Amino acid sequence: MIDRAVSLSDDAALREALAGADFVLFAAPVAQTQSLLERIAPFLEAGTIITDAGSTKSDVVAAARAALGERIGQFVPGHPIAGREARGPDAALLDLYVNRNVVLCPLSENRPEAVERVAAMWHTPGACVRGMASGQHDRVLASVSHLPHVLSFALVEQILNSPDAALKFSFAAGGFRDFTRIAASSPECGATSAWRIARRCLPNSTTNTAVLARLRAAIEAGDGAALEAVFARSRVARSEWQEHRSAGDASK
Amino acid sequence: MIDRAVSLSDDAALREALAGADFVLFAAPVAQTQSLLERIAPFLEAGTIITDAGSTKSDVVAAARAALGERIGQFVPGHPIAGREARGPDAALLDLYVNRNVVLCPLSENRPEAVERVAAMWHTPGACVRGMASGQHDRVLASVSHLPHVLSFALVEQILNSPDAALKFSFAAGGFRDFTRIAASSPECGATSAWRIARRCLPNSTTNTAVLARLRAAIEAGDGAALEAVFARSRVARSEWQEHRSAGDASK
């Protein structure tokens, strides 16, 4: 266990830090995956397993393949789905991962024992480990996480671009706050990796535009029944999801 | 002050309830405005002022004109922008309106004293009363309230329609909860008035689609700088809005 910062420019310190390591938990902005993995690769022993915490997986896998080459089998892609707005060691929570999902996207090159050891590591703080292909992971997360981010940003941008922006903001209330909180608390979207994340949403934003077009058509036709059906369906689904989730929290 | 329920089918009780009334605060689903106003109109004395609490104003004004005819000057359109998910007398909060906006949309037929008396009524529980034309009110609220509702519903609907809906819901986390809370807590969208409210969003959803199209283009072009600019702008605007709002809350 390394309990101190090691400078990436210090070969000797890197070598010492990685000597005999069972695990490397790689937690860095997704866009820096390849360059950082290339930097540590020379000091990586054959018995060390690397796993990561990036919120996209297809691009991380491509970056890891480019950086690690034939040693890609040592890299087990992962995504712990839990986080806080606050950062740094003081923001750490002992129970952050209890009952939270951690997705692992094993590669064909991974030995089963390597995947099992990463899963066991995440079970320790109480996480639920779920396996999935990288592409499926990215599609699922794009729907429930990245697309809401883009819609939230789009709403604020639209208000900013309108002639009476100040007036509109002065009338924004609790619903607006909830709707846009997701935009406020997304550190990843601030980095140069923004477009990588956003690109994941592309197929979903097309579908979303299609749904919006249907809603628009119902609105234009004054078809209250069709709208009401959509609204009711959403409300029931959202409420079932919430109940299911509360049950999960209660079982902590 | 009438402190009991009066049956709308009981002419004598209605007449008694409205006799000598200074104010009628009309709080009913927007879609029922015309029929309910028609029902009480025969018992309304010339000195009584009616105001309402509906979340749209152009359609309420049209309904009131149809119901009240030449007596439309007695009706001062209003929209108190505060509410709770909980309903009924037990959910009442003494400070619900403190520092909250109440919009009045005076008509050319209203006597200035009538508007002033309605404003004074709302000042009593601590509200900030602001004047605005009906059309402007509807455009502003469509941006900051109704459009977020529609986007939130569209997101849930899109997930429901996708082949792996259950998997996606099982990965929805806090951001999704915030983003969709607005859809869960919108009783008005459940009534037959859904399409009236949604129609207010029509111009805005066009603009929103345009903003989304620009974001899509930037994503497709891999233009991270353009995306980052939009995200940063949104985050700053949202944060300034939040600070401004917190300052307002603190001044209670």
Topology record:
Two copies of one chain form a homodimer.
Chain A: H1 11-18, E1 23-26, H2 33-40, E2 49-52, H3 58-68, E3 75-76, E4 78-80, E5 101-104, H4 112-123, E6 128-131, H5 134-161, H6 165-170, H7 174-184, H8 194-200, H9 202-220, H10 224-250
Parallel strand pairs in A: 1-2, 2-3, 5-6
Antiparallel strand pairs in A: 4-5
Helix pairs in contact in A: 2-3, 5-7
> How would the global form of chain A be characterised?
elongated
Overall mean pLDDT of chain A: 81
Query: In what order do the strands lie side by side in the largest sheet of chain A?
Result: 1-2-3
Name the chain pair with the biggest interface and residue counts per chain.
Answer: A-B, 89 and 89 residues
Please write the CATH class name of the largest domain in chain A. Alpha Beta
**Major sheet of chain A, described briefly?**
3 strands, parallel
Write down the secondary-structure element order of chain A: HEHEHEEEHEHHHHHH
**How much helicity do the residues of chain A have?**
40-55%
Based on helices, strands and strand pairing, what is the structural class of chain A? mainly alpha
Compute the number of strand runs of chain A. Answer: 6
Oligomer: homodimer
Radius of gyration of chain A, in Å, reads: 22 Å
Q: Termini separation of chain A (Å)?
A: 28 Å
Strand content of chain A: 5-15%
CATH homologous superfamily designation of the largest domain in chain A: NAD(P)-binding Rossmann-like Domain
Count of helical segments of chain A?
Answer: 10
> From the 3D coordinates, which CATH architecture of the largest domain in chain A would you assign?
3-Layer(aba) Sandwich
Domain count of chain A, please report it. 2
Low-confidence spans of chain A: 187-195
What is the CATH topology descriptor of the largest domain in chain A? Answer: Rossmann fold
